[in-house]
Design brief:
The protein has 450 residues and is of the alpha/beta class. Helix content is 38%, strand content 14%. The chain has two domains: 348 residues, TIM Barrel, CATH 3.20.20.30; 64 residues, no CATH class. The chain contains 15 helices and 16 strands. The longest helix is centred in the middle third of the chain and has 19 residues.
C-alpha cells in the first residue's frame, strides 16, 4: 500500500519567544515560559489543526545576558507529561542532551512519557554546545565537538537497546497461573562501551509505537552524518530555498548511503511565518516583529552560536570581525553559516546581527501567499514539512486558523488524524524489537506528489 505524501507540521512552543524583546509585545504574556495555561493553549491550537507534534526545546546553561525564555522556563519532559493529559493525538517532542545525561535515565523518562501519552513521545537529541554547561554538572571541561558526536552515537544506541528490553507481549498478567510476565521475553542489554556501561533491562514496557522517534538538528559534517544515520526527522534552519534544497538533497543522499530509506527521514526547516488578512495587516504585523528587536539584543543573540562570544567589543559598522574558529567547539554548523554569509555578502557587524535576529520576508504574507511558499518548498525538494515558530503572541493561532485550511484545501495536509501515535502521524514504521522475531506488518510508504 502507498499513501499520498503530505506535509509534516510541528509547533515549537517557546514561551516568551526566541529573542530578547518578544516579551515586550503588548499582547505577550511575560511569564509565558512558566505558564501551564499558555503551553496548554498552544498545544491544543496545534492539535485542533492536526499538527504532527508540539516541540519543547531546552538548554542547560544561562548567564545574565541570556534571553528571557532561557532565564525562566519549564523542563521539557515535565511540561510534556502535563500536556499528555490535556491532549489526545498530537505528538510530544522534547530536547534532551546526550552530553550531560545517562542513557538509562533518558530511556526511562521517554518510555514513561510514551506510555503516559499512548505512544506520542519523541526525542530531540542534542549534544549541548555551550561550554558553561560543564560547570553545572561538575565536569572539568566541555567535551570537544567530535567527542560529543561519539558520545551521541553510543548514547542513542544504548537508549534504543534499553527500549527493546521487553518484547511487546512480555507482560501476560495471568492471574490463574500467577505469571506476571514471560521471562523469555525480557532481555538484558549488557552494554560496555567507550563512554557508558549499562546492564539493563529497562523497568518499563515497550510503548504502542515501539520506540519514540528520534529528532536531530545537524548542520556540521559530524551532525549531518549522525542525523542521516540515526534520526527519523531533522530540524534545520532554512536560510533560503536554495540552501534548504541543497541540505535536503545532501541529507537524503547520506541516509541512502547509510543503508536507510530516505523516504523514512523527514527534513523539517524551522520557519517564522507572519500572516495577515490583507497586505496592510501583513505589513503592520511584520513591522511589529521587526520593532521588537534592538541592535543591542541582536548583538547578544549573535554570540550564542560562538559559545556566547561578546560581539559588543567590535565596531558595529565595521566589517564582520575575524573570529577564527571561535565556534568550532560550540554550534559549529551555525557559526560557520554566519561567518560565510557575512563574508560573502560583505556585511558589517550590524548587518549580520540584525539579519539573524529580525524576521525574514520569507513566509510573510496573506494565508494564500504563505501557503504558496510552503507548497513550493515541499514540492520542489527543500522540505518534507516545517517547524512553526511564532514571532508574535498570536502567531500560531493566525497560522492554524488561516494557513492550515488553505493547505488542507490544496491536499497538502490532513484534515483529520488517521492514527494515534507519533510514528503513525509521521508515516514511520514501528521498529522491530531486536530481541524478537521480525514483525510482519509495516507502515505504508509515502509516495511523491505528482
Amino acid at each position: 500500500m502507498t499513501t499520498k505524501r503530505h506535509l509534516k507540521l510541528g509547533a515549537m512552543i517557546h514561551g516568551v519567544g526566541h529573542g530578547w524583546g518578544e516579551w515586550r509585545h503588548p499582547k505577550a504574556l511575560p511569564n509565558a515560559s512558566t505558564s501551564f495555561a499558555f503551553y496548554k493553549q498552544q498545544a491544543q491550537l496545534a492539535e485542533a489543526a492536526k499538527f504532527d507534534f508540539a516541540f519543547i526545546a531546552d538548554s542547560l546553561h544561562i548567564h545574565e545576558k541570556s534571553s528571557p525564555h532561557y532565564l525562566n522556563r519549564f523542563e521539557p519532559l515535565t511540561i510534556l507529561s502535563a500536556l499528555a493529559a490535556t491532549t489526545e493525538h498530537i505528538g510530544l517532542v522534547a530536547t534532551v542532551t546526550v552530553s550531560y545525561t545517562e542513557p538509562f535515565q533518558v530511556a526511562r523518562q521517554f518510555a514513561s512519557l510514551d506510555q503516559l501519552s499512548g505512544g506520542r513521545a519523541g526525542w530531540n537529541v542534542v549534544t549541548s554546545w555551550l561550554s558553561g554547561t560543564a560547570d553545572n554538572f561538575g565536569k572539568p571541561e566541555h567535551p570537544a565537538h567530535a567527542t560529543r558526536y561519539r558520545i551521541a552515537r553510543e548514547h542513542v544506541n544504548v537508549v534504543k537497546g534499553l527500549w527493546d528490553s521487553w518484547e511487546d507481549d512480555a507482560f501476560t498478567y495471568d492471574k490463574q497461573t500467577g505469571q506476571f510476565f514471560d521471562p523469555t521475553k525480557l532481555h538484558t542489554l549488557g552494554h560496555k562501551g567507550e563512554f557508558f556501561s549499562v546492564k539493563g533491562p529497562l523497568n518499563i514496557a515497550r510503548s504502542p509505537q515501539g520506540q519514540p522517534p528520534i529528532f536531530q538538528a545537524g548542520t556540521s559534517e559530524d551532525g549531518r552524518n549522525f542525523a542521516a544515520g540515526h534520526a527519523d526527522a531533522i530540524f534545520v534552519h532554512g536560510e533560503s530555498f536554495e540552501q534548504a534544497s541543497a541540505y535536503y538533497q545532501d541529507l537524503k543522499r547520506r541516509a541512502t548511503e547509510a543503508g536507510r530509506d530516505p523516504l523514512q527521514l523527514a527534513i523539517l526547516p524551522g520557519i517564522r511565518p507572519i500572516v495577515g488578512r490583507d497586505e496592510a495587516e501583513v505589513e503592520h504585523r511584520y513591522q511589529q516583529a521587526v520593532d521588537l528587536v534592538s541592535i543591542e539584543d541582536a548583538i547578544v543573540a549573535l554570540g550564542r552560536p560562538f559559545n556566547d562570544h561578546d560581539f559588543s567589543q567590535y565596531a558595529l559598522d565595521a566589517p564582520f570581525p575575524d573570529v577564527g574558529d571561535l565556534g568550532a567547539n560550540s554550534q559549529k554548523g551555525g557559526s560557520e553559516r554566519i561567518v560565510a554569509l557575512a563574508r560573502d555578502n560583505r556585511w558589517t557587524l550590524r548587518d549580520t546581527a540584525l539579519h539573524f535576529s529580525r524576521p525574514k520576508r520569507d513566509f510573510v504574507g496573506t494565508a494564500e501567499q504563505v501557503a504558496d511558499q510552503i507548497e513550493h518548498w515541499f514540492k520542489a525538494g527543500a522540505a518534507d514539512g516545517f517547524i512553526i515558530n511564532s514571532v508574535l503572541p498570536d502567531g500560531l493561532q493566525y497560522f492554524t486558523e488561516r494557513v492550515v485550511p488553505v493547505l488542507v484545501q490544496r491536499g497538502l495536509f490532513r484534515d483529520a488524524y488517521t492514527g494515534t501515535t507519533l510514528r503513525e502521524h509521521l508515516g514511520l514504521a514501528v521498529p522491530d524489537n531486536r530481541n524478537a522475531a521480525p514483525a510482519v506488518a509495516k507502515a505504508p510508504v509515502e509516495e511523491e506528489l505528482a
